[in-house]
């Protein structure tokens, strides 16, 4: 079985393994019981029954006249046997149980000649030659031994029930902590308020929970320090940047105007980089709050000087738990990017799915993941004259990841780019 075709559930996999092993055990037990116990009992039972039938016929022949009726009554009451000298030719089929074939073999071995067995009137009749005459001994066919097939079925069914029940308890004890670990790890976005996993249960599960808690604490501390450092550096750079702007403005008119222009453009680029860094630092630390999503989106669209079409495909739900400032920065970056490279841009809302669609050149499919990397520029599809720090989509991806949102790029019906943001329910 290939890895792709194997059951994904730990419970199903464990049950399959235990079911196969229990089936093998049941087959081995059934075979062993049949060979060493049932077959031996059947041989002994058939031999005893043959001896009893032959002895009954021999005793009946040697009885004094007039004692036959009393002996027949005793045989019937004590042994369930009926003996008669009036031979009957019954035509019913003999029961197919292997026990009767074995009994016939034992009778023929004792008597040294073939023995006829037939069925009739709910009895099995055995014709036994004794001396010059033959007698018929009948018995109710209740002397069948335990059938190995039925015995095996009982073992397999009982074993399967026991295996399913015990494996359910065992796997549940293991799977439930693992599911809790998986849910917490999936919900973890580097936030400091990560709820630690309970370090209880089996030693391996407790060790896993402890390691996950330690890892989450270290990652949270690392991201917090990184965000604080980034925000601090970006904030502190604003002061010397302002001084440099002032110095450029105060340069004498004799300075080459082209040099002044290059200095101004470099300062603007630095200012955008600092603004992007501060935007990311603030958005990564924000917590969700209940908000009317339609009001937020209309406010974002209305803040642009360039007209941006806003269309609602599905207005439900009306309210969502979102980090409003982070959502605004995500949409502003996407809309600015679309305006710069696409011209006409529209924002569509379909429930909790937001799409920013432009009519530009679009993004080739092989580059739709790379464009989310910092400072990646798709020069073949994007104009290099539009400026930008190269961090816009990277900040979008980082903010979405910190809030548990999904973001990806598709092609629009008009051939441009369609950036989709899925506002998944927050797991914080």
Protein described:
- 20% of the residues are buried.
- A hairpin with a 2-residue loop joins strand 2 (116-120) and strand 3 (123-130).
- The chain is of the alpha+beta class and 428 residues long.
- Helix 4 packs parallel to helix 5, helix 5 (203-249) packs antiparallel against helix 6 and helix 7 (293-302) packs across helix 8.
- The chain has helices at 10-62, 68-79, 98-111, 148-187, 203-249, 257-284, 293-302, 324-342, 392-403, and strands at residues 81-84, 116-120, 123-130, 133-139, 289-292, 309-314, 319-322, 345-350, 353-358, 406-411, 417-422.
- Residues 380-387 have low confidence and may be disordered.
- The strands form three sheets. A five-stranded mixed beta sheet has the order 6-8-9-11-10.
- It has three domains: 3-149, Sensor histidine kinase RisS, periplasmic domain (Beta-Lactamase), CATH 3.30.450.300; 189-285, Orthogonal Bundle (Helix Hairpins), CATH 1.10.287.130; 286-422, Histidine kinase-like ATPase, C-terminal domain (Heat Shock Protein 90, 2-Layer Sandwich).
- It is rod-shaped and about 155 Å long.
- The longest helix is centred in the first third of the chain and has 53 residues, at 10-62.
């Amino acid at each position: 079985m290939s890895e792709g075709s194997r059951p994904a559930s730990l419970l199903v996999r464990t049950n399959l393994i235990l079911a196969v092993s229990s089936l093998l055990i049941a087959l081995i037990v059934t075979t062993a019981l049949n060979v060493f116990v049932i077959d031996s009992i059947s041989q002994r039972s058939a031999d005893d029954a043959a001896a009893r039938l032959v002895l009954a016929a021999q005793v009946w022949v040697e009885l004094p006249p007039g004692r036959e009726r009393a002996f027949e009554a005793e045989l019937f009451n004590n042994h369930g046997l009926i003996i008669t000298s009036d031979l009957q030719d019954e035509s019913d089929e003999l029961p197919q149980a292997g026990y009767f074939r074995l009994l016939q073999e034992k009778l023929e071995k004792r008597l040294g000649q073939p023995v006829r067995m037939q069925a009739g009137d709910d009895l099995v009749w055995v014709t036994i030659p004794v001396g010059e005459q033959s007698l018929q001994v009948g018995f109710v066919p209740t002397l069948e031994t335990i059938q190995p097939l039925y015995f095996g079925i009982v073992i397999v069914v009982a074993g399967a029930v026991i295996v399913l029940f015990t494996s359910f308890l065992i796997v549940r004890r293991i799977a439930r902590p693992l599911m809790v670990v998986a849910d917490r790890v999936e919900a973890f976005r580097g936030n400091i308020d990560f709820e630690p996993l309970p370090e209880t249960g089996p030693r391996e599960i407790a060790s896993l929970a402890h390691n996950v808690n330690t890892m989450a604490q270290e990652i949270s501390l690392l991201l917090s320090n990184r965000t604080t450092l980034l925000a601090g550096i970006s904030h502190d750079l604003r002061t010397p940047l302002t001084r440099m702007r002032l110095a450029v403005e105060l340069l004498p008119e004799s300075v080459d105007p082209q040099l002044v222009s290059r200095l101004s453009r470099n300062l603007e680029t630095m200012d955008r980089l600092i603004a992007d860094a501060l935007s990311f630092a603030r958005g990564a630390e924000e917590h969700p709050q209940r908000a009317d999503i339609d009001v937020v989106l209309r406010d974002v669209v209305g803040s642009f000087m360039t007209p941006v079409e806003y269309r609602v495909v599905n207005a439900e739900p009306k309210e969502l738990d979102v980090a409003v400032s982070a959502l605004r920065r995500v949409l502003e970056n996407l809309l600015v990017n679309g305006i710069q490279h696409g011209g006409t841009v529209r924002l569509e809302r379909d429930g909790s799915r937001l799409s920013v669609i432009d009519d530009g050149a679009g993004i080739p499919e092989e580059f739709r993941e790379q464009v989310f990397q910092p400072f990646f520029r798709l020069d073949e599809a994007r104009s290099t004259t539009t400026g930008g720090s190269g961090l816009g989509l990277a900040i979008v991806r980082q903010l979405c990841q910190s809030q548990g949102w999904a973001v990806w790029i598709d092609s629009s019906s008009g051939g441009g780019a369609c950036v989709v943001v899925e506002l998944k329910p927050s797991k914080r």
